[in-house]
Design goal:
alpha+beta; elongated; about 120 residues; 2 strands; two-stranded antiparallel sheet
Length: about 120
Amino acid sequence: MTVSAPDNSPQGLAVQEAIVRNFYRLWFSHPSVVGITWWNLVDGGAAPGEPSYSGLFDKDMNPKPSYYVLDELINHEWKTSFEVKAPKDGRISWRGFKGNYRITWTDRKGRVHVQETLVK
């Protein structure tokens, strides 16, 4: 997919940023979506006739506001990370995003355990 800015002005970049934030949140929330591909990484790199301001980076490879929006969503908002002390029965429950998880815990004898699991 490609989200173009109407122009390279601060207002145009803000429009692109808002559209990217809203569409990515919509797509991420839909159970049928398994991936999203951004086609034009750098402004001006699209096929002839396509919009010029559709990259995540400008022509000088400077990140645009859209880049920072995606970084925030992917690397912060959509990550599940927490620490908890289990009660005496050792059971905990939590809710997280689909994906691969690494669970690390220390048992009563001080041994560290690591388990990886896929949440579907």
